[in-house]
Write a structure and sequence with these properties.
The chain is α+β, with helices and mostly antiparallel strands. The protein contains 6 helices and 14 strands. Strands 1, 2, 3, 6, 11, 12, 13 and 14 form an 8-stranded mixed β-sheet that branches. The protein has a two-stranded antiparallel sheet with strand order 4-5. β1 and β2 form a beta hairpin.
């Protein structure tokens, strides 16, 4: 993400790496599957059967803009069903059976309420590559839902809201004083990793003033939630835990904290 809030991808670097003669007989991987949907984009990790996701929210994308043309093709979640992701190889995709009697909710990473723009967009949020095992009471049905709703309400004071949803596997200190990463894997055979935490990283943009509409005011924030209790985290902490570099240092240093930029 560049200092102006726009995503930057080095296509030349990617093409050069993939054309290396070292890769003549195969890629060492792991290589995420990039899944482009109507309402979001996902990077699917085949080892964990989980995705990091990105979405761009606006009043128009949520069907709340008075300027957007009306349409009868709005998403209705009662018409959507959970489905396996047929675009992924069978050996690496999450299965419906994996969640059966697992004790976990099939938790949306990109929420269905963010995809009301069409039934197709809504249906795509029910594909299992957008789903993760989440504790139900106290998390998926409560704190996680509150954060999702807060992200949508940011489209009121901000013109553009970029949301990154990230599963995390955070180390914990064992009784012997050593730090380890451990997590449950559900399914039979074990197939889908259960994240220890989930993160929402948000970048919101609006004109800095009526006189300078082309100069954006950028606000960022990161929120990490364990099972039933959430807390605010620096963006850098989420990036470090997830192995990601979401925003440039210049952007992070110049942005305001999003909780200080709005009262939604």
């Amino acid at each position: 993400m560049g200092p102006n809030g726009h995503a930057r991808i080095s296509a030349i670097a990617s093409a050069t790496a993939l054309s290396s003669p070292v890769l003549k007989y195969g890629h060492p991987g792991p290589v995420p599957d990039l899944l482009v949907r109507k309402a979001y984009m996902a990077a699917y990790d085949r080892r964990l059967a989980s995705s990091c996701l990105a979405e761009h929210l606006t009043l128009a994308s949520l069907g709340k803009s008075s300027l957007a043309p009306s349409t009868d093709d709005t998403g209705d979640r009662s018409r959507s069903n959970f489905t396996e992701d047929e675009s992924l190889p069978g050996a690496f995709r999450a299965k419906l059976q994996d969640y059966f009697r697992s004790g976990y909710d099939r938790g949306h990473m990109v929420p269905a309420a963010d995809a009301k723009i069409s039934q197709e967009a809504m249906d795509e949020t029910f594909i299992l590559s957008n789903i993760a095992p989440q504790v139900g009471a106290g998390f998926n049905r409560h704190y996680w839902a509150y954060v999702e709703d807060w992200c949508r309400r940011l489209t009121g004071p901000f013109a553009d809201v970029y949301v990154f949803t990230i599963p995390l596997y955070i180390p914990h200190k064992d009784p012997d004083g050593k730090w380890r990463v451990s997590y449950e894997v559900i399914g039979s055979p074990p197939n889908v990793s259960v994240p220890t935490h989930f993160a929402k990283v948000v970048l919101a943009s609006r004109p800095s003033s009526p006189a300078t509409p082309d100069i954006p005011e950028i606000s960022t924030g990161a929120f990490v939630l364990p099972n039933a209790k959430g807390f605010i985290m620096p963006v850098e902490a989420v990036e470090r835990a997830a192995g990601l570099n979401l925003f440039s240092d210049a952007l992070k240093n110049s942005s305001k904290h999003i909780c200080k930029s709005t009262k939604v």
